[in-house]
Prior knowledge:
This protein has 259 residues and is of the alpha/beta class. It has 7 helices and 12 strands. Helices cover 42% and strands 22% of the residues.
Amino acid sequence: MAREPLSVVIITYNNGGTLDACLRGVTWADEIVVLDSGSTDDTVAIAQRYGARVSVHPFDEFGPQKQRAYDLASNDWILNLDADETLSAGTREVIEHALVAPRYAGYRLPRRELLFWKVQHRWGRRNGLLRLFDRRHGRMNHVEVHSAVELDGPVKTLRRADFVNHGDVDISTRMNKINGYTTRMVAHKLRKKQRFTGLRRVFYPPWFFVRQYIGKRYFLDGWAGFIASMTGAFYVFLKYAKLHEARQVAALRKRAGDR
């Protein structure tokens, strides 16, 4: 029995360093769709070399850009990858088997991380992310931070499949991302008026470290796992520290305006 036709969908911006490896692993798909945001490197040329259908649209927000890319696909079944992600060996076969008379609206794929100089151990705890889905059953939600696809049908995790995120190639890259992520999150949290942020600043970072190092078994990855757990703890500390700073600045400005 034939499987459902599949479109691989990727949004890009200056991903020339990682896109080749990403696309090399999905040439078996029926279609590759790339929505670029105006890259100035060889991203578009790489995509065209793999026969991808390339479109360009200025980037506004992550959720809307992803949805535009999904809407460009010719097939209902979508495999969503980031330009710095690659499918692990054997994942193709698991996906193709799942797409033979699929009984679910979507499937989660476990993700392994590149921990600076090594890939997360296979025995580590992997987060399952909804990356394979029937777009007739859902769309990107409107969450401001970490928007994702929401489906109106059942979802299953494909345990024997996974993919690797190659985003954190070194500690400096990770720290730059942390700085950017936390800055963008401050405005969102200010609007939510989150409470008990002082307690979160004190107690959440060490708890996050334990959750990563022990709970996700980063201890299996040696010093790479320890450093990843520490930078993760710093990430959750920094977002609440920046939120505290923003509130203090806003209060100072208000008092200055009341004078």
